[in-house]
Design the sequence.
């Protein structure tokens, strides 16, 4: 199993309890806004600590409250593509792309800058600063930054939500290529049924 | 242009202010960080204590410094025994007074910029493999740089203009504690000293202007095209 997740998150009046296993490929967490899908991704990335549970990705235990295991985010090797890109505003596109690459141990760098740039078609953006990018450009750079950090799996939080129809199609094609050519396990959050039907091999309903 | 005595006053003022903001900078950053990022019992008390020099009459701050750092004050005795540093009637005392007076302004400027840092960017850096310290130096610190520069400018301006606490704490000794404002005050007490006052006041204006221009230049070189103040 690529993902083996069982967790409880305390969130005031709306605690989240979710349990699922998923094979390789793209797994979609599908549900309405506010159901806590992003909180689940944050728990898998290590940015949020679940009240209790167990998170195993590709045979590596990332979190296990019973065993007292809680790897910090920097040791989980996840490529997290955020809804809003979250590019570092004070660094150029090139330095954003290389941020995780430089920190990754050499044996984990399975992609080089040239490959990522060609794969995503962002060669002309390298010298630009993030604030000058369009939404679609920023999201491609964000995907590149995640891939270059040498991740063992990807987390994607509604990466299409801030884009117009043409850009959505473009990024959707990129995500399909990541899924099929790079064969990374992907945990994907969305509230859009069409998107999920097209991309996901496994669908996990969240909320309701 | 400037007389020997005037040069001495300018150099002493710059020395006092530079030492003051260099002492205050790390302390102010640490306090700003505590106030912006942490919750602990006594936080409101710390906040009030830091801001005290801003609202107290400077002469009271000077008198309190005299009590604490004077020859018989507990802090003064400790500093003399541990580091061999004395403050009474010394330029070091003028720097200490200026540092204390500049501290609240510097804390405010840095606290605002620390609070303005999008913490989700720090989370993104963590997921990309950066530990807490690397995240601090690669993301948080560069993003707070405008606030640190603003703090330096405000702190420098406050230090170079410090009068009340300084004259109370270390008196007005030419060549030792007589900074620009104190020299202007002394010249005002002398019959026929108007020319000296005008010259010293002009120097004071030019120094402050130079500090502002320098900070703008630094901010632009920082590549953000932003303003410090």
Sequence:
């Amino acid at each position: 199993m690529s993902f083996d997740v069982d967790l409880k998150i305390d969130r005031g009046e709306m605690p989240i309890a979710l349990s699922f296993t998923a094979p390789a490929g793209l797994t979609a967490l599908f549900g309405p806004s506010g159901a806590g899908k992003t909180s689940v991704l944050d728990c898998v990335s290590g940015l949020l600590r679940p009240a209790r549970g167990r998170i195993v990705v590709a045979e590596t235990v990332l979190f296990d409250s019973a065993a007292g295991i809680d790897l910090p985010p920097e040791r989980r090797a996840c490529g997290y593509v955020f809804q809003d890109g979250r590019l570092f505003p004070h660094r150029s596109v090139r330095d954003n792309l290389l941020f995780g690459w430089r920190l990754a141990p050499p044996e984990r760098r399975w992609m080089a800058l040239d490959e990522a740039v060609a794969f995503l078609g962002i060669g002309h953006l390298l010298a630009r600063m993030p604030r000058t990018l369009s939404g679609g450009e920023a999201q491609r750079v964000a995907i590149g930054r995640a891939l270059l950090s040498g991740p063992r799996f990807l987390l994607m939080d509604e990466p299409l939500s801030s884009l117009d129809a043409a850009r959505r199609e473009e990024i959707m094609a990129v995500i399909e290529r990541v899924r099929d050519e790079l064969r990374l396990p992907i945990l994907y959050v969305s509230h859009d049924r069409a998107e999920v039907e097209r991309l996901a091999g496994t669908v996990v309903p969240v909320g309701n | 242009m400037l007389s020997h005595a005037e040069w001495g006053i300018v150099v002493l003022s710059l020395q006092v202010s530079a030492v003051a903001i260099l002492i205050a900078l790390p302390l102010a950053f640490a306090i700003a960080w505590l106030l912006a990022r942490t919750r602990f019992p006594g936080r409101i008390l710390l906040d009030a204590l830091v801001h005290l020099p801003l609202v107290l009459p400077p002469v009271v701050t000077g008198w309190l410094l005299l009590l604490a750092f004077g020859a018989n004050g507990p802090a003064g005795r400790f500093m003399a025994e541990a580091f061999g540093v004395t403050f009474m009637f010394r330029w070091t005392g003028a720097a200490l007074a200026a540092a204390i007076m500049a501290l609240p302004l510097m804390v405010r400027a840095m606290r605002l910029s620390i609070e303005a840092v999008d913490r989700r960017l720090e989370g993104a850096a963590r997921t990309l493999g950066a530990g807490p310290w690397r995240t601090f130096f690669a993301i948080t610190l560069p993003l707070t740089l405008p606030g640190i520069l603003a703090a330096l400018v405000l702190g420098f301006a406050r230090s170079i203009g410090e009068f009340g606490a300084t004259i109370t704490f270390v008196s007005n000794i030419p060549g030792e504690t007589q900074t620009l404002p104190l020299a202007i005050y002394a010249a005002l007490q002398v019959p026929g000293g108007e020319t000296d006052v005008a010259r010293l006041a002009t120097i004071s204006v030019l120094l402050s202007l130079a500090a502002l221009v320098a900070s703008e230049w630094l901010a632009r070189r920082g590549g953000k095209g932003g303003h410090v103040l």
In short: Chain A has six helices and ten strands. Strands of chain A lie at 3-9, 16-22, 26-30, 52-57, 60-64, 69-70, 78-81, 153-157, 186-190, 202-205.
